[in-house]
Write a structure and sequence with these properties.
This protein is mainly beta and 114 residues long. It is built from one helix and nine strands; from the N terminus they run H-E-E-E-E-E-E-E-E-E. It starts with a helix and ends with a strand. It holds the Pfam family Cupredoxin_1. Keywords: Copper, Metal-binding, Signal. This is EfeO-type cupredoxin-like domain-containing protein.
Length: 114
């Protein structure tokens, strides 16, 4: 009986929090020569930490020039985090600033929503 009650309570907790959970922080993977996803959304006025995973064979980074945010260049197989707190809604370019990578297609968009 105790096991059944505990199981029902845990199930109720999962159901209760499923609709109200905050969105997971975004994760972006980078490889030759793209970001996945190439578009991410974050809310204006909130601090968000973006995880950048380099799944390629070359060194890469994730930069958002308009927000002066950058992961720093990381080696293949490594992960970095950057924190942004954009105040203004809009669209901001994401790119890899390693020479030649953005022109080769390693770009994306950060959409800041109201």
């Amino acid at each position: 009986m105790f096991f059944r009650f505990r199981h029902l309570a845990a199930t109720a907790l999962v159901i209760a929090t499923a609709g109200s959970a905050a969105a997971d922080p975004p994760t972006v993977t980078g490889k030759e020569f793209s970001f996945q996803p190439s578009k991410i959304e974050v809310p204006a006025g909130e601090t968000t930490t973006i995880t950048f995973e380099n799944t390629g064979r070359l060194s890469h980074n994730l930069t958002i020039p308009a927000l002066e945010a950058a992961s720093g260049t990381i080696q293949a197989g490594n992960t970095a985090k950057i924190t942004v707190a954009p105040e203004e809604p809009g669209r901001y370019e994401i790119r890899c600033s390693v020479p030649g990578h953005a022109p080769a297609g390693m770009t994306g968009t950060l959409v800041v929503t109201k």
